[in-house]
Amino acid sequence: MRTLLCVSSLWLVVALVNAQQSSTATHPAAAQTIKSGGVSAEDAQALRADLQRMKALVQQMQTNLAFVTNTQGPLKHQFELEIEMWQTEIASMERRLGAEPGKQ
Q: Which residues contact 55 (CB under 8 A, 6 or more apart)?
């Protein structure tokens, strides 16, 4: 059970990182445009789609967290920290897009 949970968590993190990297790789101008303060309509739409996917993955992580027992305190806490980190990154991306968190 512990191995399955670790493998599934690792898979989710890898999927999130790949989604983020592929977004930046396929939209390098979007990453540069965000840094300069403006986002084209096409890039904004792509980033919103990425944000929706990231939110869905974080929701899956939260659901999986329910299956981690309290006897695995440090492991559960690590998952909580990772979820919080991704939520912070999502909120940051939403701010850069000029969107209110939870509005989309």
A: 90
C-alpha torsion sign, points 34, 56, 18, 10 = positive
Taking the C-alpha atoms of residue 86 and residue 104, their distance in angstroms, rounded to an integer, is 17
Helix, strand, or coil here: 5? helix
Q: What is the spatial distance between Cα 53 and Cα 38, in angstroms, rounded to a whole number?
A: 22
* Exposure class string for 21-59: b at 16+ Cβ within 10 A, else e: eebeeebeebeebbeeeebeeebbebbbebbeebbebbe
pLDDT at residue number 11: 61
- Across the chain, which has 104 residues, the per-10-residue mean pLDDT values are 53 62 56 58 89 95 85 83 95 80 50
